[in-house]
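Attaching the record inline, Q. Sequence:
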Amino acid sequence: MLLDQAGGEFELLLSPDRAAMPRRHVPRQISFIPAGVPLWSRFTSNTYVRHLDLHFDMEALRTRLADDFAPAPFETPRLMFNDERLMTFANLIAGECQSPAAFHELYGDSLTTALFIDFLRSAERRDRKRSALATWQLRRVVDYIEDNCLRAIRLQELAELVNLSPSYFSHAFKAATGVPPHQWQTNARLKRAQDLLLSTDMSLTEVAGATGFFDQAHLTRLFRKQLGATPAAWRRERRG
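Structure, as predicted:
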């Protein structure tokens, strides 16, 4: 849990390849890493970091929480997410660790138990209300779609760019843009088609083939649906 930071940028990655999953860590973000999962960090320069690390025994936690224990949230890495309730507990625990006159050990024990219970609840809250992609996530995905829009792009590819499950990513992308990922790709192809219609004398069949559509009819149908005119009419109107 990153409580405070100053200086250069700090990243956490689940791969040593920076291009694979860049993760810029900022204050008040939380990361959960299951035991045995490799983790890489990168600092751009001298960086001050104030953080709270909690290590726990799964079997002891299972015994402590009994029927409230659910293993699923503890099996999947979660990097740099925000949860105000968890951060409240984290700051109380950090304050207790730094205090020269700490309260009774039961106080710290109660705080950590409450934090882990709320971690389980945070997974439930995340499932109930899936938020939109963060700005950096959206930018990364949109750039990728527009760079690769002429070929088939799998939903899994896009989800892996921002380390989300395909289902969660699909909902988060639509929450951020108002359209599902496949529609964004179609719109990117249509924009490429518009550029070719204006800048070249290619036939509609050639434009369709160059922009990833099955054929001229496919291009015409989607073009009319999105822009309210056929490609031929749209071209005539703008080129005179």
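Confidence is low (pLDDT under 50) at residues 19-23. Residues 135-178 form one domain.

More tomorrow.
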